[in-house]
Every structure is written in C-alpha cells, then in structure tokens.
Write a structure and sequence with these properties.
Layout (H helix, E strand, L loop, with lengths): L3 E6 L3 E7 L2 H6 L7 E3 L2 H10 L3 E2 L3 E3 L1 H11 L4 E4 L6 H12 L3 E2 L12 E7 L5 E6 L13 H5 L1 E7 L6 H16 L4 E4 L3 H6 L1 H8 L5 E5 H8 L4 H8 L6 E4 L5 E4 L4 E4 L12 H14 L4 H16 L11 H12 L3
Parallel strand pairs: 1-6, 1-10, 2-8, 3-9, 6-7, 10-11, 11-12, 12-13
Antiparallel strand pairs: 2-4, 2-5, 8-9, 13-14, 14-15
Helix pairs in contact: 3-11, 9-10, 11-12, 12-13
Length: about 325
C-alpha cells in the first residue's frame, strides 16, 4: 500500500514576493514574465533597489508548491531537496513541516552554504517574473534522494527547473530508473519557457523514452514543440508523453488522457497574481489522479484550485480558501 501520493525532487527556494511596475522591471534590466538565474550579488542588489510593496516570504520552489497543494487536498507527499545550515534554511524546513510535507531535511545535518532564494515580482497585469539565486539547491543531487519514500509513492514528480544543475540531472535520472523499475508513473513539469529555451537537452534527458504525465503551459508547449498553435503542439507532445495537460490561463486546460483530447473550461476569476497557478494545478491534478479520478474531473478540480490561487497574492492557497477547495473535491469525487 502506498504511503505517499506524490514524491518529488526539486529546488528548495525561499520566495520573496514584490508588487512592482513594468517600468520598475525595465529600470532594473529584468526580463518580464520568465525565470532568470542570477548570482547572489545580483540578488542582493535587487533586494536593495526594488521599490515595490513586499509580501511575506514562504518556502517555495515549484515542486514544493505542488506538494503543498496535494497536502491541502488531503493527500500525502514527500519532498527531496537541499537547503543550507542558515536562517533561511531553518525557515524553509519549518515552513515545509508546518504544511505537512515529509522531507529528507529531517534525516541528516544540513551543509554549510547559502539557501536558495527567489525574488518574485508581480506586475499590475498579474504576470509573474522571477529572479532566482539557486545557492546550495544548485547542488541537490543523488544524496538527497530517499528511495524508500519514492518506492512507497503513487507518483514521481519532477520539476523542469532541475535541468540547469548537473547533480540534479543525475538525481532525476536515478529516480526515473527506480520509478520505472517499480512501475511508478513519472510526471514532469516543463516549468518555464526559459528552461525549454536554454536547457532543452536537460529537459529531453528527463523525458527520456517518455513520461507518463507531462504538465506545461501554452508558452512552454509551443517552445518545446517549436510550433505556433496549441493544437499542433498537443499532437507533437504525444511523442514524448503517454498523457499530458496544457494549461491555458483563462481558456482552461487541454488534456490528453492517452486516448482522447479533453478541453476543460475554467470559471472567470479576477486575477491578482499568477505565481503558483501552474504548481497548484499540478498538485490538484496529481491528487485527483492518485485517487483514481478521470482526466476531466482532475482538470476541473485543478482549474478550480488554480483559479483560487491567482485570485490572491502568493504561490499557494490561504487557509480561508481551503474549505471551498475541499468542498469542490467532495462534489467531484461523487461524480462518475
């Protein structure tokens, strides 16, 4: 019997979120709407110069946000990651535990170094821009894996951001091999258009001979397949994944369940911050699939969850939204 619904490996980053203007991004020479890797000196410069309103920090990284989404729906998850023996690392570990996620961080002393940090900048159009100093999470590797937890899980989930690190790529390939050996489905997120653009070889190594479930947004799908139409991209993705979901913002989601394409619309919401929308979508979708739901109901739950996330600031749901999300899950669970 599985102990975890989802086991993931990913970058552990303390998120610092700012509301900024487009002019502010231009003034600071920041590329809008994508994730850019930066050095610590650049991170410190930006923290000193950013003039936008600052929101609270949170344990983040794409996979961590996805696993917290699984937990919020009543699932169980395990996160393999790396933080340093510093105050941000202490904060990260405690925040992860407070959200119910099991982790390798509890099993051994942490190394000296700097915990990774991500500056998340939200513009008035609700677009999210990220500048990331990886710090010690750039060294996440095979020693952070917990094979026992992986083999006790229903899904292995891999974030595409790991493609930038040689040691992380090694860990992912080991985890892939173990999952395949035990017939554990492998899910992968493409994560960001810049990952597809600059680390395509790493992403393709993660895919290997194919994954069981691929998550991407429309921009990532078009970049990866080198097409200009989402439906053409969807047809090409069939060469890389048994099943996949393309998130399309206000247009909902386009999924392929291995046999059929499924378009699932989403309800209109007032968007304040798109940070974490794709992560929450993946978390809700993986939770639904771990419970045996079909792709349509999984997409409906994931659309609803992502809609709640984008209606407020921050990468995951605040506690006041959890009853609504769980009620939606109960309603969908009763459908056939």
């Amino acid at each position: 019997m599985s102990r975890y619904d989802v086991y993931a490996i990913g970058n552990a980053l303390v998120d610092y979120e700012f509301e900024v203007s487009v002019a502010e991004l231009s003034r600071l020479g920041i590329s809008k709407g994508v994730m850019t890797l930066i050095e610590e000196s650049r991170h410190d410069q930006l923290v000193g110069e950013l003039q936008g309103e600052k929101h609270k920090r949170a344990c983040g990284g794409s996979a961590a946000n996805t696993l917290i989404g699984v937990q919020q729906l009543g699932g169980k998850s395990f996160f393999s990651c790396k933080v340093a023996a510093d105050e941000p690392g202490d904060f990260y570990f405690q925040d992860l535990k407070a959200n119910g996620v099991d982790t390798n961080l509890a099993s051994k002393p942490r190394d000296d170094g700097k915990t990774g940090k991500c500056l998340v900048m939200i513009t008035p159009d609700a677009d999210r821009t990220m500048n990331t100093f990886l710090g010690i999470t750039g060294d996440v590797g095979p020693s952070e894996l917990n094979t026992e937890a992986l083999l006790a899980s229903r899904f292995l989930y891999i974030e595409g951001y790991l493609a930038s690190s040689p040691s992380a790529r090694e860990a992912v390939l080991i985890a892939r091999k173990e999952a395949r050996r035990r017939n554990i489905p492998i899910a992968l997120s493409l994560s960001d258009p810049n990952m597809v653009k600059y680390f395509a070889d790493g992403i393709r190594a993660f895919i290997g001979d194919g994954v069981d479930l691929l998550f991407c947004n429309e921009a990532e799908a078009l970049a990866f397949t080198e097409t200009t139409d989402v439906f053409a991209a969807a047809n090409k993705l069939r060469d890389h994944a048994l099943a996949f979901v393309i998130t399309r913002g206000a247009h909902g989601a386009l999924a392929f369940d291995g046999d059929h394409f499924i378009e699932t619309p989403t309800e209109p919401v007032k968007v304040r911050d798109t940070l974490g929308a794709g992560d929450m979508f993946a978390g809700a979708f993986l939770y639904a699939r771990s419970q045996g739901w079909d792709f349509r109901r999984a997409s409906q739950l994931a659309n609803y969850a992502a809609g709640l996330v984008v209606s407020e600031f921050g990468p995951r749901l605040a506690s006041q939204h959890l009853p609504s999300l769980r009620d939606k899950a109960k309603q969908l669970a009763k459908q056939k």
